[in-house]
Amino acid sequence: xxxxxxxxxxxxxxxxxxxxxxxxxxxxxxxxxxxxxxxxxxxxxxxxxxxxxxxxxxxxxxxxxxxxxxxxxxxxxxxxxxxxxxxxxxxxxxxxxxxxxxxxxxxxxxxxxxxxxxxxx
Length: 121
Known about the structure:
The protein is α+β, with helices and mostly antiparallel strands.
């Protein structure tokens, strides 16, 4: 059974949690922009972790429904962008995330509650 875009995004959130991504936020952009339906934003604690998060997503997200259109920033690993069309994943290091502040830029977007997906510490 095919995943709808939100289910695909939530699967990505679960995968981010598996790799201990920090400050995961899912923004619903569908009513604000034609860019994508969702932005998934997180950060890693190092360049090694940002690459590991990216690799984990690429290895585990099903491409049958949402093919990867492009990957940007992997070599530098300060801000890795994965474009799945309807879902765009942003994996930052903390400094880059703070500087670009996509949450503020897309401040009118609905934030999807992810508390029920966050593992207990």
